[in-house]
């Protein structure tokens, strides 16, 4: 029997991690009354600041109509607000409310805690290598999907 391909073993480990993280994220977000899609809106607003819904749709790679529904739910929950654009009377800008900022602060703290749990016994130098390898894999996947969209479905 031949030794397993280390690239395949690495992908298998990443896929297993994705499944576990996905399940953990689903449960954690549900406990906060959020969906992954709504949390992506919150993270995007944290990263960019207030934004037009069209800009959010582009950043999240979804339709403006979908973003409208997501923002509606987040606004009803008091996590975002819709405000008039300062110079364009036709435009609306979406922003995190104080409650939204606090919630994202909590999510960020949870991520830091999870990173501590997952990588507690590993030296920083090893973690840096893993981070570099994964970042390169993400970049390669984005290029592969952009040039051959069927790549995504083959995993």
UniProtKB/TrEMBL annotation:
Xref: SUPFAM superfamilies: Winged helix' DNA-binding domain
GO biological process: response to stress
PROSITE patterns cross-referenced by the UniProt entry: HTH_MARR_2
GO MF, any single term: DNA-binding transcription factor activity
Residue ranges of every copy of the HTH marR-type domain listed in the record: 7-139
Identification of the protein by name: MarR family transcriptional regulator
Organism: Nakamurella alba
């Amino acid at each position: 029997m031949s030794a397993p391909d280390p690239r395949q073993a690495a992908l298998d480990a990443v896929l297993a991690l994705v499944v576990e993280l996905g399940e953990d994220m689903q449960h954690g977000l549900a406990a906060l009354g959020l969906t992954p899609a709504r949390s992506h809106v919150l993270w995007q607003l944290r990263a960019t600041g207030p934004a037009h819904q069209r800009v959010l749709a582009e950043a999240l790679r979804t339709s403006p109509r979908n973003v409208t529904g997501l923002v509606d739910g987040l606004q009803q929950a008091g996590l975002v607000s819709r405000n008039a654009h300062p110079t364009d009377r036709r435009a609306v800008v979406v922003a995190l409310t104080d409650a939204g900022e606090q919630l994202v602060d909590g999510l960020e703290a949870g991520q830091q805690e999870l990173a501590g749990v997952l990588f507690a016994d590993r030296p920083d130098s090893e973690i840096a290598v893993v981070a570099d390898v994964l970042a390169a894999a993400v970049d390669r996947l984005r290029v592969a999907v952009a040039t051959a969209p069927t790549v995504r479905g083959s995993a």
